[in-house]
Amino acid sequence: MIHHAAASFWKAYNALPAPVRSQADKKFALLKADPDRPSLRFKPIGRFWSARIGLR
To answer: Per the CB 3.0–4.6 Å rule, which of 16, 25, 31, 36 could disulfide with 20?
Structure first.
């Protein structure tokens, strides 16, 4: 699976606190290893996909 992110995503990602970016990086590694992993709660939202990073 190939993953793409818009420039606006990277702007928002870079604005996150370091601990949240670290969590996001760990979840992305899980996504690359197993896109069907239930803990990601990966789901379509319109033409994009969403994955849960933390509890909120």
So the answer is: 16
